[in-house]
């Protein structure tokens, strides 16, 4: 999502021109179908959050993928930081959708459901890393041996 859709809110026009038309069409479909005014209007606070996603979270995805696959326990603290950061950046968006003006109840609920997943899953990552003893099978083998 970060690379394919979200980054379209912050990329300069010359970089947007390099994206396949299907991705641009998909984003426009989302905006029109779900009446997502944040992506459509790009308020400055939303753009700031997207920049955080592109500059901080995107590189973390690759580091985390390596650490999870290799069973590296050092990913715990960075994963907690990622989870809390990602979840808290979604809270203002959910509040805007739910309490904002001009949307019917079904539309508010739909947007909250779409964006809510970006609150729940990072929060689950943070909680798992914070409260599970040994989340990585490779760590279990090291401790037993």
Order of helices and strands: HHHHHHH
Mean pLDDT: 89
Structural Rg: 18 Å
- Taken from the alpha-carbon principal axes, the silhouette is globular
The biggest sheet amounts to: none
Topology, number of strands: 0
Unreliably modeled segments = none
N-to-C terminal Cα separation, in Å? Answer: 40 Å
Strand content: under 5%
Class per helix and strand makeup: mainly alpha
Helix content: over 70%
Summarize the structure.
Helix content is 75%, strand content 0%. With 145 residues, it is mainly alpha-helical.
Task: Outline the secondary-structure elements.
Blueprint: H1 13-16, H2 21-34, H3 37-41, H4 44-70, H5 76-99, H6 105-131, H7 137-144
Helix pairs in contact: 4-5, 5-6
Notes on the protein architecture:
There is one protein chain. The protein is 75% helix and 0% strand. It has helices at 13-16, 21-34, 37-41, 44-70, 76-99, 105-131, 137-144. The model has no long low-confidence stretch (mean pLDDT 89).
């Amino acid at each position: 999502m970060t690379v394919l859709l979200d980054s379209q809110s912050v990329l300069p026009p010359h970089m947007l021109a390099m994206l396949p038309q299907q991705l641009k069409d998909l984003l426009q479909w989302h905006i029109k179908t779900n009446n997502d005014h944040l992506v459509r209007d790009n308020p400055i606070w939303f753009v700031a959050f997207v920049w955080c996603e592109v500059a901080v979270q995107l590189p973390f995805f690759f580091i985390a993928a390596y650490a999870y696959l290799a069973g590296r326990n050092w990913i715990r603290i960075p994963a907690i930081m990622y989870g809390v950061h990602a979840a808290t950046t979604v809270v203002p968006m959910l509040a805007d959708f739910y309490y904002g003006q001009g949307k019917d109840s079904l539309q508010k609920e739909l947007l909250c459901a779409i964006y809510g997943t970006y609150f729940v899953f990072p929060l689950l990552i943070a909680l798992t890393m914070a409260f599970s003893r040994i989340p990585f099978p490779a760590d279990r083998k090291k401790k037993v041996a």
